[in-house]
Specification:
Blueprint: H1 2-29, H2 31-36, H3 41-48, E1 55-57, E2 60-67, E3 74-78, H4 81-88, E4 91-92, E5 96-97, H5 100-103, H6 105-109, H7 116-125, E6 133-136, H8 140-148, E7 156-161, E8 168-174, H9 180-183, H10 187-197, H11 209-212, H12 222-231, E9 241-242, E10 246-248, E11 255-257, E12 269-270, H13 272-278, H14 281-291, H15 293-302, E13 309-310, E14 314-315, H16 326-333, H17 343-354, E15 358-360, E16 365-369, E17 375-377, E18 383-386, H18 390-406, E19 420-427, E20 433-441, E21 448-457, H19 459-465, H20 467-478
Parallel strand pairs: 1-6
Antiparallel strand pairs: 1-2, 2-3, 4-5, 6-16, 7-8, 7-21, 9-12, 10-11, 13-14, 15-18, 16-17, 19-20, 20-21
Helix pairs in contact: 12-14, 12-15, 13-18, 14-16
């Protein structure tokens, strides 16, 4: 009799342990796979019932969940949405999640490994689940100034970074939109709003143009040419290169003209400093031919071309074409043809130069904090690439300072401060030009790097919207 009772207890205990083990496995170890299963609609609905963590800038929520009087208990709300829409993206019942709302979803919903204990306590206590808050590296004053410097109706992007850490200080694009239009719980209204947004010229609510739009970088790419010229040892500061008004392109019946708005025509020969100052196309095409396709492609790769990464939102890889065609190589050397770059990539080129040749990984996240304010994550600066030698970086910096003091970027001058810069204009077939500026200040101890692009503009409008705006933004940082 005692043996029978003992056996029954053993069986009962084994069944209890099996049930507990299965529950533990489903709740914790298999939870991530189950939540991401595309047929699991309950996961999406459960997320909408959670007190999702806030996204913060300087301690102020730019995205937060507030109580709602419906089946979901909480409503996602975006504050100053047009200013931050490209960064936050949206969290939508009918449209899904994008940008930071997607990239930081596990943290915002409390589903990271660091929050395992909190989930365990909530499971047994019945407490309301609450996600972590995510603080960004963005400076709100710089973000606002950058946004306001892009006129309404103008398509453009501005990126500002700390070259020593990779922290992104401002990242804006226009046209923008109100993310609250997609965050409501009425799916019919949200879907209708999305249809309307998709009709806005130049707007894609799914993308961050600063990190995902590939554009012809124009003459800002000449910084890569100049770096390759020095790094290969084929050129130095004293090298003199023919500077014809037009350069016949091999295998074609066309010639590459020099930039006509600078002073290129004043010299039949030029050193690299003068060619950068005045953005002389024919000089850099010849440099590209001399260093060769492979060396130029390798230098572009060292600056980040061809590399996709996250900040933690996804960054589209900028592209430098593989070609044996000398005409195409000449066009690529001036940022035309098949070469394309994101606005972030152009900032990263300047950032590597500003940081003695070391390119830091761009980053948007300052801290991730649990509901009790304990720090779950605080990203440390990391090196992305060793782009160029310190000597090359110093020489390029001197040349970029000369571009501002004596060349095409003179509107970026700041009294008493050395500013390094490079302008660019890329012709786009059947549209206007892409106007660019990239640079940093102070040149002798850089605090901030900037890239600006204004799309589909004429030459005069482009020059008015880029270099003077850079001067205002750089000055704003230096006056802090």
């Amino acid at each position: 009799m005692n043996q029978a009772i003992r056996n029954s207890w053993i069986v009962a205990l084994a069944m209890f342990l099996a049930i507990l083990g299965s529950l533990t496995y489903v709740q914790f170890f298999a939870a991530d796979d189950l939540n991401k299963n595309p047929i699991n609609s309950r996961s999406l609905y459960q997320d909408f019932g959670k007190n999702r963590g806030s996204i913060l800038v300087d301690g102020v929520p730019i995205a937060e969940s507030v109580p709602s009087n419906d089946q979901f208990n909480y409503q996602r709300v975006y504050n100053d949405p047009e200013l931050y829409s490209a960064l936050t993206g949206f969290f939508s019942l009918s449209q899904g999640s994008y940008q930071l709302e997607l990239a930081m979803n596990d943290e915002l919903t409390g589903n990271t490994d660091q929050q395992f204990y909190d989930r365990l306590v909530q499971l047994f206590s019945g407490a309301q689940a609450e996600g972590a808050s995510v603080e960004l590296t963005i400076d709100p004053q710089l973000q606002r100034l950058a946004y306001d410097l892009i006129p309404e109706g103008q398509k453009g992007s501005i990126v500002m970074m700390d070259p020593k850490t990779g922290d992104i200080l401002a990242m804006v694009s226009k046209p923008s939109y109100d993310t609250n239009l997609l965050a409501g719980h009425d799916t019919e209204i949200a879907n209708a709003n999305m249809e309307q947004l998709l009709t806005v010229p130049g707007l894609s609510p799914y993308l961050n143009p600063a990190t995902q739009s590939l554009l012809a970088p124009g003459s800002t790419f000449k910084l890569v040419d100049a770096a390759a010229a020095l790094e290969t040892g084929k050129f130095n500061a004293d090298s003199v290169i023919p500077n014809p008004a037009a350069l016949p392109l091999p295998g074609t019946n066309i010639s590459l003209p020099n930039f006509t708005n600078g002073a290129c025509a004043s010299r039949s020969e030029a050193d690299i400093q003068f060619a950068l100052e005045q953005s002389c196309n024919t000089v850099f095409a010849q440099i590209a031919w001399d260093v060769g396709q492979d060396a130029l492609a390798q230098q572009a790769e060292k600056f980040g071309f061809g590399e996709s990464f996250s900040i933690p939102t996804q960054v589209t890889a900028s592209q430098f074409p593989e070609t044996e065609d000398q005409a195409e190589l000449a066009l690529s050397s001036i940022g035309q043809g098949s070469v394309t770059a994101t606005p972030l990539q152009v900032a990263m080129i300047s950032a590597a130069i500003a940081n003695n040749g070391v390119q830091m990984t761009p980053n948007l996240i300052k801290t991730v904090r649990a509901p009790d304010l304990s720090v779950l994550d605080e990203p440390e600066p990391t090196v992305l690439n060793e782009s160029i030698s310190p000597g090359t970086a110093a020489q390029l910096t001197d040349w970029m300072v000369s571009v501002v003091e004596n060349g095409t970027a003179s509107a970026a001058r700041i009294p008493g401060v050395k500013v390094a810069g490079k302008t660019g204009t890329a012709e786009v077939q059947d549209r206007g030009d892409n106007a660019w500026f990239t640079g940093f200040a102070p040149a002798d101890d850089p605090e901030v790097v900037i890239s600006i692009v204004m799309e589909n503009v004429d030459l005069t409008t482009g020059s008015q919207l880029t270099t003077p705006s850079a001067q205002k933004l750089l000055e704003a940082v230096l006056n802090k």
